[in-house]
Amino acid sequence: MTADLFDALNQNTRATGQWGKGKAPKIPAYPRPKATKAEKKKDKAKKPRTVAEIYKHFQRR
């Protein structure tokens, strides 16, 4: 969320500034974390639970 806010402020600054024609400064984007291949595979490996499985999970004690 911070990155999106940072980028929006930068775009607003570029759009409303008093720059010469074509001389608006290039402001670098906020660094965002990149997902690794292991995380992507882990997310795909999870299969959705059925209602019965969820019910059994909460009834164990």
What's the SSE pattern?
Answer: HHH
Q: What is the number of helices? A: 3
Uncertain segments are none
Strand content: under 5%
Largest sheet, in brief, is: none
Fraction of residues in H or I helices: 40-55%
**Quantity of strands, as a count:** 0
Q: Between the first and last Cα atoms, what is the distance in angstroms?
A: 39 Å
Shape: elongated
Supply Rg.
23 Å
Structural description of this entry:
The protein is an all-alpha fold and 61 residues long. It contains 3 helices and no strands. The protein has helices at 2-16, 37-45, 51-59. The longest helix has 15 residues, at 2-16.
How are the secondary structure elements laid out?
Layout: H1 2-16, H2 37-45, H3 51-59
Give a concise summary.
This protein is mainly α and 61 residues long. It has helices spanning 2-16, 37-45, 51-59.
Main features:
54% helix, mainly alpha, 61 residues, elongated, single chain
